Amino acid sequence: xxxxNCLFSTSMLLLIGSIAIAPVVLAxxxxxxxxxxxxxxxxxxxxxxxARFSTLSTREKKVGIFLDKEAVTLLDDGxxxxxxxxxxxxxxxVDFDFEAFTKANMQLAKFTDGEKSNLFAPGGxxxxxxxxxxxSGDKTEIFGVSNGKEQIFTLPFxxxxxxxxxxxxLPLFNFxxxxxxxxxxxxxxxxxxxxxxxxxxxxxxNDPGRTWACPTSSTSPVGNATGEWTFWxxxxxxxxxxxxxxxxxxxxxxxxxxxxxxxxxxxxARLGVYQEVIKDWEIRSGGPGATLLPQESPFRLxxxxxxxxxxxxxxPYAGGDAGEGRFVFALHDGNCNNLSKTLILEYKVPxxxxxxxxxxxxxxxxxxxxxxxxxxLASLTNVFTAAGANPSAPNQSAIGQVRTNELLPGxxxxxxxxxxxxxxxxxxxxxxxxxxxHMSFNNSLTLATYINANWPLLVGPPSGxxxxxxxxxGNPFAAGSAPVMSMWNAPAASLTVPLTPAPGTPPPxxxxxxxxxELALNTCSGCHLMETGTPFAHLDYNSVPGMPAQLSGFxxxxxxxxxxxxxxxxxxxxxxxxxxxxxxAANMSCGRIAPIGNLLLNELSSPARLxxxx
Length: 614
Hints:
This protein is of the alpha+beta class. It is 23% helix and 24% strand. The strands form nine sheets. Strands 13, 18, 19, 20, 21, 22, 23 and 26 form an eight-stranded antiparallel beta sheet that branches. A four-stranded antiparallel beta sheet has the order 7-4-3-12, covered by helices on one side. Strands 8-9-10-11 form a four-stranded antiparallel beta sheet. Strand 22 (415-420) and strand 23 (429-431) form a beta hairpin. The longest helix has 15 residues, at 98-112.
């Protein structure tokens, strides 16, 4: 389902603490995250929680934060704990457990003491700076950045040290605060990127019982042609009896043989794809039109990827799924000679609920110490790849989408495409590529108008909270495919986005710089090329067989100039960001039996959901 970012109104009777509030109009749901947050003790059992929301209009006076079926209203009208009307600081007077708050602070200190870690833009992919967390006597000191400025945050361990009517500024650095967990926290440093997040080790991608290694001129293929990690078996499980595996695979690649209309835009045929994948596979299987044989598959496994950072939420009210699990394949010519195509099977993990998601994250962290690594990894991947993994979904498959990028003979440029299962099940169908306007809108007045209307969501903080809609200004907007772009931009004369300093990116970046950057970075074409300095594949299709796949600098760490303003440096280290997020998922507090104030604080300080698709 396509995520939507929109303001909405609803009326309901709320309870904050024990105080009944008349029906109110709520301006925003709990997907909205603050750019600044503080708490003020009123007495031993009551506090005021105050937040500033960069994405809200100055006209808004009430913000509704949903906690499951309950909602809390933060006010900016001078009532209900709010000190000054119209100052942009929304407040709620709430019941609060200061013992629980300080215990959570101690747990945070326990697994981050002395840690120097990358600080990423809330909700985004950009690395802002390094932060340090240290224990200093009876408190934790967090050296970080708030709204582009260096700041030291102090979290006390002793509730008696919290003074009445003295606001405490709280950090928004992707670790939820306010609620303790009922186990020893997992140290942040325990997450192994190569064993828990981006698994490319040859012992996995060439597992003889689960994968099929391509032949070369001097070697025979080895492995299991229908093993559980092969492209063949994964497609068979996805079809789940709706057709033969051969027919199912052929139906997918027939999309490239004809011109199509996707969301009102023409997506031209690329005949070389069907030739290089299917026709050559048929020849090796017996001749033109032959049933495809699994042992002649031209796809080899490059990596198994955990994307827990794409889950539905963090904390007691974590909803939706547990993120994604992905299998990345590269195309070869049948003799292990690399061809310019990668294919990613992206599954929605069919696990929901805070405790279950937390256990899922902990199991992936525990993989690093497994004595039976491949077996334990297979047990985890079977959760989302097995036939019937999601009984309520089309084909009972947990597949979310299939994405491809390629530059095969006859193709005029690199291009990405996306495929999903229709609600009725059956074969995969081509769909629009998410977060990507059609290339015809590049440098257009229409794109400038979209950016002018959405820059608070683009820039934040949190950043990247926009959605590219199917239509904009009454016309189709989202692209049917994503061809390579030189650079996303909009005419400066048509932009009304402020030129003031950016709230997240260090100087000399402006709000306008960040609005253009976030739009471009969140497109498939931008992330796979200009914005990240990537040659269109984050796991290199041209990696040498028998060696781990080469990873892009975007994943492993890179600093490059902004293509529109080279004076601004853009820094990425996405696997480190994902590792930090997996630590958050593994240490979520899932207890809902707590005063409303602690639950509210935990929700507001939880990481903003990543809306990027790559």
